[in-house]
Amino acid sequence: MTNPPDLRPDRARAEVRGDARPGQPRIGMVSLGCPKALVDSERILTRLRAEGYAISADYGGADAVIVNTCGFLDSAKAESLEAIGEALAENGRVIVTGCLGAEPEYITGAHPSVLAVTGPHQYEQVLDAVHVAVPPSPDPFIDLLPASGVSLTPRHYSYLKISEGCNHHCKFCIIPSMRGRLQSRPAHAVIREAERLVEAGVKELLVISQDTSAYGVDLKHAESGGHRAHVTDLARDLGSLGAWVRLHYVYPYPHVRKLIPLMAEGLVLPYLDIPFQHAHPDTLRRMARPAAAAKTLDEIGAWRRDCPDITLRSTFIVGYPGETEAEFQTLLDWLDEAQLDRVGCFQYENVAGAAANNLPDHVPDEVKQDRWDRFMQKAQAISAAKLAAKVGRRLAVIVDAVDADGATCRTWADAPEIDGNLFIDEGFAALSPGDIVTVEVDEAGEYDLWGRLV
Protein backbone atom coordinates (compact mmCIF):
# COMPACT_ATOMS: atom_id res chain seq x y z
CA MET A 1 0.00 0.00 0.00
CA THR A 2 3.03 2.33 0.04
CA ASN A 3 5.36 3.77 -2.53
CA PRO A 4 8.99 2.66 -2.57
CA PRO A 5 11.34 4.37 -0.08
CA ASP A 6 13.09 6.45 -2.75
CA LEU A 7 9.94 8.55 -3.12
CA ARG A 8 10.39 9.91 0.39
CA PRO A 9 11.73 13.50 0.50
CA ASP A 10 14.84 12.47 2.41
CA ARG A 11 15.65 9.94 -0.33
CA ALA A 12 14.27 11.81 -3.32
CA ARG A 13 15.37 11.23 -6.90
CA ALA A 14 17.98 13.62 -8.21
CA GLU A 15 15.71 14.61 -11.08
CA VAL A 16 13.25 16.36 -8.76
CA ARG A 17 15.71 17.98 -6.39
CA GLY A 18 17.00 20.96 -8.29
CA ASP A 19 19.05 23.77 -6.81
CA ALA A 20 16.98 26.52 -5.23
CA ARG A 21 17.90 30.08 -6.11
CA PRO A 22 18.54 32.46 -3.19
CA GLY A 23 15.33 33.19 -1.33
CA GLN A 24 13.31 30.59 -3.22
CA PRO A 25 10.71 28.83 -1.01
CA ARG A 26 11.20 25.06 -0.78
CA ILE A 27 8.60 22.33 -0.28
CA GLY A 28 9.12 18.65 0.57
CA MET A 29 6.73 15.83 -0.31
CA VAL A 30 5.99 12.46 1.27
CA SER A 31 3.78 10.41 -1.07
CA LEU A 32 2.09 7.34 0.42
CA GLY A 33 -0.44 4.95 -1.06
CA CYS A 34 -1.25 3.76 -4.56
CA PRO A 35 -0.08 5.03 -7.97
CA LYS A 36 -3.22 7.16 -8.23
CA ALA A 37 -2.04 9.10 -5.16
CA LEU A 38 1.42 9.37 -6.68
CA VAL A 39 -0.11 11.09 -9.72
CA ASP A 40 -1.82 13.54 -7.35
CA SER A 41 1.56 14.25 -5.73
CA GLU A 42 3.12 14.91 -9.14
CA ARG A 43 0.33 17.33 -10.04
CA ILE A 44 0.69 19.20 -6.77
CA LEU A 45 4.45 19.52 -7.18
CA THR A 46 4.05 20.58 -10.81
CA ARG A 47 1.67 23.36 -9.78
CA LEU A 48 4.05 24.47 -7.03
CA ARG A 49 7.00 24.48 -9.43
CA ALA A 50 4.96 26.66 -11.79
CA GLU A 51 4.44 29.13 -8.92
CA GLY A 52 8.14 29.39 -8.20
CA TYR A 53 8.62 26.86 -5.40
CA ALA A 54 11.64 24.56 -5.32
CA ILE A 55 11.36 20.90 -4.33
CA SER A 56 13.37 19.94 -1.28
CA ALA A 57 15.23 16.64 -1.17
CA ASP A 58 15.28 16.52 2.62
CA TYR A 59 13.19 17.56 5.59
CA GLY A 60 15.72 20.05 6.90
CA GLY A 61 15.90 21.99 3.67
CA ALA A 62 12.13 22.40 3.30
CA ASP A 63 10.13 25.39 4.48
CA ALA A 64 7.15 23.02 4.78
CA VAL A 65 6.37 19.39 4.00
CA ILE A 66 3.25 17.98 2.32
CA VAL A 67 2.25 14.47 3.36
CA ASN A 68 -0.05 12.81 0.81
CA THR A 69 -1.76 10.11 2.85
CA CYS A 70 -3.48 6.77 2.27
CA GLY A 71 -6.65 5.89 4.17
CA PHE A 72 -7.85 2.70 2.49
CA LEU A 73 -7.03 0.27 5.33
CA ASP A 74 -6.52 0.79 9.05
CA SER A 75 -2.89 -0.32 8.63
CA ALA A 76 -2.45 2.32 5.91
CA LYS A 77 -4.00 4.94 8.19
CA ALA A 78 -1.52 4.02 10.91
CA GLU A 79 1.36 4.34 8.46
CA SER A 80 0.07 7.74 7.37
CA LEU A 81 -0.09 8.98 10.96
CA GLU A 82 3.45 7.69 11.50
CA ALA A 83 4.68 9.55 8.39
CA ILE A 84 2.98 12.75 9.56
CA GLY A 85 4.62 12.36 12.96
CA GLU A 86 8.03 11.83 11.36
CA ALA A 87 7.61 14.93 9.19
CA LEU A 88 6.56 16.98 12.21
CA ALA A 89 9.57 15.75 14.20
CA GLU A 90 12.02 16.43 11.37
CA ASN A 91 10.56 19.65 9.99
CA GLY A 92 7.68 20.88 12.17
CA ARG A 93 5.61 22.52 9.41
CA VAL A 94 3.34 19.91 7.82
CA ILE A 95 0.36 20.08 5.45
CA VAL A 96 -1.68 16.89 5.11
CA THR A 97 -3.64 15.87 2.03
CA GLY A 98 -4.87 12.69 0.33
CA CYS A 99 -7.38 10.01 1.21
CA LEU A 100 -6.92 10.19 4.98
CA GLY A 101 -7.56 13.92 4.69
CA ALA A 102 -11.24 13.04 4.30
CA GLU A 103 -11.11 12.45 8.09
CA PRO A 104 -9.52 15.67 9.38
CA GLU A 105 -10.50 15.06 13.02
CA TYR A 106 -8.72 11.69 12.92
CA ILE A 107 -5.52 13.45 11.83
CA THR A 108 -5.73 16.47 14.12
CA GLY A 109 -6.65 14.24 17.04
CA ALA A 110 -3.29 12.51 16.69
CA HIS A 111 -1.31 15.50 15.40
CA PRO A 112 -2.97 18.79 16.40
CA SER A 113 -0.01 20.87 15.20
CA VAL A 114 -0.39 20.17 11.49
CA LEU A 115 -0.84 23.38 9.52
CA ALA A 116 -3.76 22.21 7.36
CA VAL A 117 -5.68 19.12 6.29
CA THR A 118 -7.22 18.70 2.83
CA GLY A 119 -8.96 15.75 1.19
CA PRO A 120 -8.07 13.67 -1.87
CA HIS A 121 -7.39 15.45 -5.18
CA GLN A 122 -8.18 18.85 -3.63
CA TYR A 123 -5.34 20.55 -5.48
CA GLU A 124 -6.52 24.14 -5.00
CA GLN A 125 -6.94 23.68 -1.25
CA VAL A 126 -3.43 22.21 -0.98
CA LEU A 127 -2.00 25.16 -2.88
CA ASP A 128 -3.93 27.60 -0.69
CA ALA A 129 -2.51 25.93 2.42
CA VAL A 130 1.04 26.13 1.01
CA HIS A 131 0.54 29.82 0.15
CA VAL A 132 -0.45 30.56 3.75
CA ALA A 133 2.39 28.55 5.26
CA VAL A 134 5.10 29.55 2.77
CA PRO A 135 4.19 32.55 0.60
CA PRO A 136 5.27 32.19 -3.02
CA SER A 137 8.11 34.29 -4.40
CA PRO A 138 8.22 33.58 -8.14
CA ASP A 139 10.82 34.93 -10.53
CA PRO A 140 9.32 34.75 -14.05
CA PHE A 141 12.78 35.01 -15.61
CA ILE A 142 14.19 32.03 -13.71
CA ASP A 143 11.36 29.73 -12.64
CA LEU A 144 10.67 27.89 -15.86
CA LEU A 145 8.63 24.68 -15.71
CA PRO A 146 9.44 21.84 -18.13
CA ALA A 147 6.50 20.96 -20.37
CA SER A 148 6.38 17.46 -18.92
CA GLY A 149 5.91 18.68 -15.36
CA VAL A 150 7.36 17.07 -12.23
CA SER A 151 7.68 13.28 -12.22
CA LEU A 152 8.21 11.12 -9.13
CA THR A 153 8.81 8.01 -11.24
CA PRO A 154 11.87 7.20 -13.35
CA ARG A 155 12.01 9.11 -16.62
CA HIS A 156 11.16 6.12 -18.80
CA TYR A 157 7.73 5.26 -17.38
CA SER A 158 4.80 7.28 -16.11
CA TYR A 159 1.37 6.73 -14.63
CA LEU A 160 -1.49 8.12 -16.71
CA LYS A 161 -4.64 8.71 -14.66
CA ILE A 162 -7.74 8.63 -16.90
CA SER A 163 -10.50 9.05 -14.32
CA GLU A 164 -11.22 9.65 -10.65
CA GLY A 165 -13.79 8.02 -8.36
CA CYS A 166 -15.86 4.87 -8.67
CA ASN A 167 -19.52 3.90 -9.10
CA HIS A 168 -19.21 0.53 -7.35
CA HIS A 169 -20.41 -0.02 -3.79
CA CYS A 170 -18.14 -2.85 -2.62
CA LYS A 171 -18.78 -3.31 1.08
CA PHE A 172 -15.11 -3.47 2.04
CA CYS A 173 -14.21 -0.23 0.26
CA ILE A 174 -14.68 3.45 1.08
CA ILE A 175 -13.17 4.92 -2.10
CA PRO A 176 -16.53 6.24 -3.40
CA SER A 177 -17.07 8.11 -0.15
CA MET A 178 -13.53 9.54 -0.25
CA ARG A 179 -13.11 10.22 -3.97
CA GLY A 180 -16.69 10.36 -5.20
CA ARG A 181 -18.39 8.83 -8.20
CA LEU A 182 -16.70 8.19 -11.52
CA GLN A 183 -15.34 11.35 -13.19
CA SER A 184 -13.63 10.57 -16.48
CA ARG A 185 -11.17 12.96 -18.08
CA PRO A 186 -12.04 14.04 -21.63
CA ALA A 187 -10.37 11.71 -24.10
CA HIS A 188 -8.46 14.46 -25.90
CA ALA A 189 -6.95 15.63 -22.59
CA VAL A 190 -5.71 12.12 -21.79
CA ILE A 191 -4.19 11.72 -25.25
CA ARG A 192 -2.58 15.15 -25.13
CA GLU A 193 -0.93 14.31 -21.79
CA ALA A 194 0.23 10.95 -23.14
CA GLU A 195 1.71 12.62 -26.23
CA ARG A 196 3.65 15.07 -24.05
CA LEU A 197 4.98 12.23 -21.92
CA VAL A 198 6.15 10.24 -24.93
CA GLU A 199 7.75 13.35 -26.44
CA ALA A 200 9.62 13.80 -23.12
CA GLY A 201 11.09 10.29 -23.40
CA VAL A 202 8.57 8.10 -21.57
CA LYS A 203 8.70 4.55 -22.95
CA GLU A 204 5.87 3.02 -20.90
CA LEU A 205 2.44 4.45 -20.02
CA LEU A 206 0.71 2.84 -17.05
CA VAL A 207 -3.01 3.57 -17.34
CA ILE A 208 -4.64 3.88 -13.91
CA SER A 209 -7.99 4.79 -12.35
CA GLN A 210 -10.35 3.28 -9.81
CA ASP A 211 -12.23 1.50 -12.63
CA THR A 212 -10.48 1.63 -15.99
CA SER A 213 -13.14 -0.47 -17.77
CA ALA A 214 -15.80 2.14 -16.93
CA TYR A 215 -13.83 4.99 -18.47
CA GLY A 216 -16.14 7.38 -20.29
CA VAL A 217 -19.44 5.99 -18.98
CA ASP A 218 -20.18 9.24 -17.15
CA LEU A 219 -19.38 11.20 -20.32
CA LYS A 220 -21.69 8.94 -22.36
CA HIS A 221 -18.54 8.04 -24.30
CA ALA A 222 -18.45 11.50 -25.83
CA GLU A 223 -15.94 12.34 -28.53
CA SER A 224 -13.64 15.31 -28.01
CA GLY A 225 -10.82 16.51 -30.18
CA GLY A 226 -11.20 13.48 -32.43
CA HIS A 227 -10.94 10.98 -29.56
CA ARG A 228 -13.81 8.95 -28.05
CA ALA A 229 -14.05 8.46 -24.29
CA HIS A 230 -14.24 4.66 -24.27
CA VAL A 231 -11.60 2.30 -22.91
CA THR A 232 -11.26 0.41 -26.21
CA ASP A 233 -10.86 3.58 -28.27
CA LEU A 234 -8.52 5.05 -25.67
CA ALA A 235 -6.33 1.93 -25.68
CA ARG A 236 -6.16 2.00 -29.48
CA ASP A 237 -5.27 5.71 -29.52
CA LEU A 238 -2.61 5.32 -26.83
CA GLY A 239 -1.19 2.31 -28.66
CA SER A 240 -0.54 4.47 -31.71
CA LEU A 241 1.98 6.63 -29.79
CA GLY A 242 4.78 4.06 -29.91
CA ALA A 243 5.18 3.47 -26.16
CA TRP A 244 4.33 0.39 -24.11
CA VAL A 245 0.76 0.79 -22.81
CA ARG A 246 -0.17 -1.17 -19.67
CA LEU A 247 -3.76 -1.30 -18.37
CA HIS A 248 -4.40 -1.44 -14.61
CA TYR A 249 -7.60 -1.88 -12.54
CA VAL A 250 -9.68 -3.36 -15.35
CA TYR A 251 -13.00 -4.76 -14.11
CA PRO A 252 -14.00 -7.83 -16.16
CA TYR A 253 -17.03 -6.32 -17.91
CA PRO A 254 -18.07 -8.09 -21.14
CA HIS A 255 -16.66 -5.29 -23.32
CA VAL A 256 -13.16 -6.02 -21.97
CA ARG A 257 -12.96 -8.82 -24.55
CA LYS A 258 -12.71 -6.10 -27.21
CA LEU A 259 -9.33 -5.11 -25.76
CA ILE A 260 -7.82 -8.52 -26.41
CA PRO A 261 -7.43 -8.12 -30.21
CA LEU A 262 -5.50 -4.90 -29.57
CA MET A 263 -3.13 -6.91 -27.38
CA ALA A 264 -2.80 -9.66 -29.96
CA GLU A 265 -1.94 -6.99 -32.55
CA GLY A 266 0.74 -5.50 -30.29
CA LEU A 267 -0.94 -2.10 -29.90
CA VAL A 268 -1.10 -2.45 -26.12
CA LEU A 269 0.76 -4.82 -23.83
CA PRO A 270 -0.89 -8.23 -23.40
CA TYR A 271 -1.41 -7.55 -19.69
CA LEU A 272 -4.61 -7.15 -17.68
CA ASP A 273 -4.73 -6.15 -14.02
CA ILE A 274 -8.18 -7.28 -12.84
CA PRO A 275 -9.40 -7.07 -9.21
CA PHE A 276 -11.29 -10.38 -8.88
CA GLN A 277 -11.17 -10.26 -5.02
CA HIS A 278 -12.67 -13.76 -4.51
CA ALA A 279 -14.22 -16.71 -6.35
CA HIS A 280 -17.01 -18.10 -4.19
CA PRO A 281 -20.40 -16.63 -5.20
CA ASP A 282 -21.61 -16.23 -1.61
CA THR A 283 -18.45 -14.37 -0.58
CA LEU A 284 -18.71 -12.14 -3.64
CA ARG A 285 -22.35 -11.35 -2.84
CA ARG A 286 -21.40 -10.34 0.70
CA MET A 287 -18.77 -8.11 -0.87
CA ALA A 288 -21.45 -6.67 -3.21
CA ARG A 289 -19.32 -7.77 -6.16
CA PRO A 290 -20.36 -9.58 -9.35
CA ALA A 291 -20.75 -13.27 -8.41
CA ALA A 292 -20.03 -15.06 -11.68
CA ALA A 293 -16.64 -16.69 -11.10
CA ALA A 294 -17.48 -19.63 -13.39
CA LYS A 295 -18.25 -17.28 -16.28
CA THR A 296 -15.03 -15.44 -15.50
CA LEU A 297 -13.13 -18.68 -16.12
CA ASP A 298 -14.80 -18.89 -19.53
CA GLU A 299 -13.76 -15.30 -20.25
CA ILE A 300 -10.18 -16.04 -19.21
CA GLY A 301 -10.16 -19.02 -21.54
CA ALA A 302 -11.40 -16.87 -24.40
CA TRP A 303 -8.78 -14.18 -23.71
CA ARG A 304 -6.00 -16.76 -23.77
CA ARG A 305 -7.37 -18.34 -26.93
CA ASP A 306 -7.30 -14.98 -28.73
CA CYS A 307 -4.02 -13.78 -27.18
CA PRO A 308 -1.96 -16.74 -25.92
CA ASP A 309 0.75 -14.53 -24.41
CA ILE A 310 -1.61 -12.51 -22.21
CA THR A 311 -0.52 -11.99 -18.60
CA LEU A 312 -3.27 -11.79 -15.97
CA ARG A 313 -2.72 -10.11 -12.62
CA SER A 314 -5.24 -9.88 -9.80
CA THR A 315 -5.67 -9.28 -6.09
CA PHE A 316 -7.78 -11.22 -3.61
CA ILE A 317 -9.06 -10.83 -0.06
CA VAL A 318 -9.01 -13.76 2.37
CA GLY A 319 -10.76 -13.85 5.72
CA TYR A 320 -13.65 -11.68 4.60
CA PRO A 321 -16.51 -11.70 7.17
CA GLY A 322 -18.46 -14.93 6.90
CA GLU A 323 -15.85 -16.69 4.75
CA THR A 324 -16.06 -20.41 5.58
CA GLU A 325 -13.38 -23.01 5.03
CA ALA A 326 -15.44 -24.34 2.12
CA GLU A 327 -15.64 -20.89 0.53
CA PHE A 328 -11.90 -20.44 0.91
CA GLN A 329 -11.29 -23.86 -0.63
CA THR A 330 -13.42 -22.79 -3.59
CA LEU A 331 -11.07 -19.83 -4.03
CA LEU A 332 -8.04 -22.15 -4.02
CA ASP A 333 -9.69 -24.49 -6.54
CA TRP A 334 -10.62 -21.53 -8.74
CA LEU A 335 -7.03 -20.29 -8.65
CA ASP A 336 -5.90 -23.75 -9.73
CA GLU A 337 -8.16 -23.50 -12.76
CA ALA A 338 -7.51 -19.86 -13.57
CA GLN A 339 -3.69 -20.17 -13.36
CA LEU A 340 -3.24 -16.43 -13.00
CA ASP A 341 0.27 -15.20 -13.73
CA ARG A 342 0.57 -12.51 -11.05
CA VAL A 343 -1.37 -12.61 -7.79
CA GLY A 344 -1.53 -10.43 -4.69
CA CYS A 345 -3.51 -11.19 -1.55
CA PHE A 346 -4.68 -9.16 1.45
CA GLN A 347 -6.04 -10.30 4.76
CA TYR A 348 -9.36 -8.57 5.38
CA GLU A 349 -9.25 -5.52 7.63
CA ASN A 350 -12.06 -3.37 8.93
CA VAL A 351 -12.00 0.13 7.45
CA ALA A 352 -13.76 2.94 9.26
CA GLY A 353 -16.97 3.72 7.39
CA ALA A 354 -17.07 0.49 5.34
CA ALA A 355 -20.30 -1.50 5.30
CA ALA A 356 -18.41 -4.78 5.76
CA ASN A 357 -17.58 -3.82 9.33
CA ASN A 358 -21.18 -4.58 10.32
CA LEU A 359 -21.33 -8.02 8.71
CA PRO A 360 -21.63 -11.01 11.07
CA ASP A 361 -19.12 -13.82 11.57
CA HIS A 362 -15.81 -12.00 11.35
CA VAL A 363 -12.91 -14.40 10.83
CA PRO A 364 -10.30 -14.71 13.62
CA ASP A 365 -6.88 -13.24 12.85
CA GLU A 366 -5.12 -16.59 13.15
CA VAL A 367 -7.47 -18.10 10.56
CA LYS A 368 -6.88 -15.17 8.21
CA GLN A 369 -3.13 -15.69 8.52
CA ASP A 370 -3.43 -19.43 7.87
CA ARG A 371 -5.55 -18.85 4.76
CA TRP A 372 -3.20 -16.15 3.50
CA ASP A 373 -0.25 -18.51 3.91
CA ARG A 374 -2.03 -21.30 2.03
CA PHE A 375 -3.20 -18.97 -0.73
CA MET A 376 0.27 -17.50 -1.26
CA GLN A 377 1.85 -20.95 -1.28
CA LYS A 378 -0.40 -21.97 -4.16
CA ALA A 379 0.06 -18.66 -5.98
CA GLN A 380 3.82 -18.93 -5.61
CA ALA A 381 3.84 -22.44 -7.10
CA ILE A 382 1.77 -21.27 -10.07
CA SER A 383 4.11 -18.30 -10.61
CA ALA A 384 7.21 -20.51 -10.47
CA ALA A 385 5.77 -22.92 -13.05
CA LYS A 386 4.72 -20.06 -15.35
CA LEU A 387 8.17 -18.50 -15.21
CA ALA A 388 9.97 -21.84 -15.68
CA ALA A 389 8.09 -22.21 -18.97
CA LYS A 390 9.76 -19.01 -20.20
CA VAL A 391 13.31 -20.41 -19.95
CA GLY A 392 14.77 -20.49 -23.45
CA ARG A 393 12.37 -17.87 -24.83
CA ARG A 394 13.45 -14.54 -26.26
CA LEU A 395 11.60 -11.60 -24.72
CA ALA A 396 11.62 -7.83 -25.03
CA VAL A 397 12.48 -6.14 -21.73
CA ILE A 398 12.65 -2.55 -20.54
CA VAL A 399 15.66 -1.55 -18.41
CA ASP A 400 14.74 0.06 -15.10
CA ALA A 401 18.15 0.42 -13.44
CA VAL A 402 21.83 -0.34 -14.02
CA ASP A 403 24.48 -0.63 -11.33
CA ALA A 404 27.83 -2.36 -10.84
CA ASP A 405 26.19 -5.76 -10.37
CA GLY A 406 23.88 -5.80 -13.36
CA ALA A 407 20.77 -4.45 -15.05
CA THR A 408 17.31 -4.71 -13.49
CA CYS A 409 14.69 -5.03 -16.20
CA ARG A 410 11.03 -5.96 -16.70
CA THR A 411 9.30 -7.96 -19.39
CA TRP A 412 5.92 -6.86 -20.78
CA ALA A 413 4.46 -9.24 -18.17
CA ASP A 414 5.77 -7.16 -15.27
CA ALA A 415 4.44 -3.87 -13.96
CA PRO A 416 6.89 -1.73 -11.93
CA GLU A 417 6.98 -2.16 -8.16
CA ILE A 418 4.28 -4.87 -8.01
CA ASP A 419 5.47 -7.69 -10.30
CA GLY A 420 8.78 -9.44 -10.85
CA ASN A 421 12.02 -8.45 -12.58
CA LEU A 422 14.40 -9.86 -15.13
CA PHE A 423 18.07 -9.51 -14.23
CA ILE A 424 21.02 -9.30 -16.62
CA ASP A 425 24.38 -9.86 -14.93
CA GLU A 426 26.69 -10.09 -17.96
CA GLY A 427 27.30 -7.70 -20.87
CA PHE A 428 25.11 -4.97 -19.40
CA ALA A 429 27.61 -2.09 -19.30
CA ALA A 430 26.20 -0.27 -22.32
CA LEU A 431 22.59 -0.40 -21.09
CA SER A 432 20.73 2.61 -19.68
CA PRO A 433 17.34 2.99 -17.95
CA GLY A 434 14.61 3.14 -20.54
CA ASP A 435 16.37 0.95 -23.10
CA ILE A 436 14.17 -1.76 -24.60
CA VAL A 437 16.25 -4.78 -25.56
CA THR A 438 15.82 -8.47 -26.38
CA VAL A 439 17.03 -11.12 -23.97
CA GLU A 440 17.02 -14.88 -23.87
CA VAL A 441 15.76 -16.24 -20.55
CA ASP A 442 18.18 -18.75 -19.04
CA GLU A 443 16.97 -19.04 -15.42
CA ALA A 444 13.70 -18.66 -13.51
CA GLY A 445 12.78 -18.28 -9.86
CA GLU A 446 9.46 -18.00 -8.06
CA TYR A 447 8.86 -14.40 -9.15
CA ASP A 448 11.90 -13.28 -11.17
CA LEU A 449 13.81 -14.21 -14.31
CA TRP A 450 17.46 -14.03 -15.38
CA GLY A 451 18.61 -13.65 -18.95
CA ARG A 452 21.31 -12.56 -21.38
CA LEU A 453 21.33 -10.07 -24.21
CA VAL A 454 20.92 -11.45 -27.73
Low-confidence stretches: 1-18, 140-147
Residues in helix, %: 25-40%
Measured between the Cα atoms of the first and last residue, the distance is 37 Å
Largest sheet entry? 5 strands, parallel
Task: State the CATH superfamily name of the largest domain.
Answer: Methylthiotransferase, N-terminal domain
Number of strands: 20
Query: What is the averaged pLDDT score?
Result: 88
Structural class: alpha/beta
Topology:
Blueprint: E1 26-31, H1 35-50, E2 54-55, E3 64-69, H2 74-90, E4 94-98, H3 104-110, E5 116-117, H4 123-133, E6 157-161, E7 163-164, H5 175-179, E8 183-184, H6 187-199, E9 204-208, E10 223-224, E11 227-228, H7 231-239, E12 244-247, H8 260-265, E13 271-273, H9 281-287, H10 293-306, E14 311-318, H11 325-338, E15 342-347, H12 365-388, E16 394-403, E17 406-411, E18 422-424, E19 436-444, E20 449-453
Parallel strand pairs: 1-2, 1-3, 3-4, 4-5, 6-9, 9-12, 13-14, 14-15, 18-20
Antiparallel strand pairs: 7-8, 10-11, 16-17, 16-19, 17-18, 19-20
